């Protein structure tokens, strides 16, 4: 039975990841950094189902955002493993550390970080990406809304 639940969770997360990537494709939230295509999206944690949130230890709240990043080799489009660290600085200059968790599902690798926010809070986000051989910085801005 546990295997069936794990399969359901994996499928659910892959659907979430597909949604995130399709939203990314529409919004063109992709940066080419060196040899990588870095796809990123920020969204409210309430978009994640309770089962998936529990499985990945994400607290669902209208005041928690999730940052989802995937790194692909620019030539082969294969998922890349790296170490991600980052900060989110609001417009008042208050900085919050981002802690990313690597999620591997089949050939896909995603990095998730939870970011607490206030309604209509805008963050300038900087993520350091390091695979041991290459280092790049992804910068973007996102405004979160409580739902």
From TrEMBL:
It comes from the Bacteria. Residues 1-27 form the signal peptide. The keyword NADP does not apply. Keywords: Signal. InterPro entries: DUF4426. Residues 31-147 form the DUF4426 domain. This is DUF4426 domain-containing protein. The lineage of its organism: Bacteria, Pseudomonadati, Pseudomonadota, Gammaproteobacteria, Alteromonadales.
